[in-house]
Here is the input.
Amino acid sequence: MKAKMTLAREFKIGDIDKRIYGSFIEHLGRAVYGGIYEPGHPTADENGFRGDVLELVKKLNVPIVRYPGGNFVSGYNWEDGVGPVEKRPKKLDLAWGTTEPNTFGTNEFMKWCKKADTECMMAVNLGTRGADEARNLVEYCNHKSGTYWSDLRISHGVKEPHNIKLWCLGNEMDGAWQMGAKTAVEYGRAALEASKVMKWTDPSIETVLCGSSSRNSKTFGEWEVQSLDIAYDSVDYVSLHQYYDNKTDDVQSFLAKTLELDEFIYSVICACDYVKAKKRSKKTINLSFDEWNVWYHSNNAPFEKWSVAPPLLEDIYNFEDALMVGSMLITLLRHCDRIKVACLAQLVNVIAPIFTKTGGGVVEQTIFYPFMHLSNYGRGSALLPLIDCPKYDCREFTDVPYLEAVATYNEEQEEAVIFCVNKSLDENVVLSVDLMDFDGYKPAEFISMDGYDKKTENTLACAPVKPHKNELPLMDGGVLTANLKPFSWNVIRLKKVNA
Ligand code: AHR
Here is the structure.
């Protein structure tokens, strides 16, 4: 089949905030213990940070990592995770039915962030705790010295403040599974009061209000409006969470769910702007899509209750998941004028692009690659490609474009990149791109992932799915023609060639 795309610098959606390529580490399963942190592992450094994992995290070029949860944070006492390790208490984690040894906590995570070249997006517990513990944590992390909490940090060997800029006000507070779940009004009040005192402690921080735990949440919509109505003036972002699955083994419907994702994003923007209008406010609330991914393969896997770091949520991803993850991130980028932060949930072992064996090796899961390409090449601004392409109908959706695409333009690097997924199972797409005002730009690299059975996985034993380079697409009179294989992930990098 044939598709046409028109690309111009004027079709700018917005500047891409690099934090849209964020990820997430929760005290959950083997994300921390056996994931980023494993003292005694052959690649571990003097801090116990796994070097093989750090290497892959750097390849992903993740600018921000949310921590320490997730559901975990709603029962977490951050004080348990600082100070001399031998004095730290072991505690039950009621969110996941495990035991938290607390041998890794805030200061270890901040040190890991430095090593990984990333920043921290810190979450506070608004489930079993509240404003007081939250502001104490801000003081512990960000205040220079001369107060109880900042001096306590210094006594823990951390002289300089961490200066954490972005803070989540709890996690999924609308969900019955959450410790300390709240109604929208209860949460709005708790979030407002916490955000207020956190910002009084450090006025340079930004805060994220919890939106609904997913678009399917019973109170979705009302939750955003009611909680924002209360906390609007003190918060900067509202969060979105969404996971997709292919439980019905209907890949065409699975990949079409980006249409729903697009609507979800749009409705949250509308909720924010409705409250803005109602308040006649000059302030715009942006979006933090701080949990997104495919999640279902590992559901209900048995584990030993109250054990330390059991394997939990260890989805092994296949090739169709990689196309979905690429399509989801493309969809997020198409809203980069409002989505400023997003976190692929999660980073290591727990529904993650990086998978380890405790005491053993590490592997890039299939979903690693589209994320890596977007995060490394998709910088600058996002451009809306005008696309004319055939569409399909499937069980759950109609008029689904076969091509999912976005383009980015990095003025500084003089680079434009087209990212696209061909969702057709059996047909090539011959894509012609009119490059409009991209005079002098020529294809420099054409990377794809294709040719795999949709259920092919990368495991520690065998990891066949990886990107490959193609011959460069042809250019003729400002029009580029590329052949996109059936069921494929594609990255076309264009560079300005000086005459
Ligand atoms: O990412 C796994 C879990 O999914 C998080 O802890 C929670 O916030 C969400 O429901």
Remarks:
- The mean pLDDT is 97.
- The two ends are 34 Å apart (CA to CA).
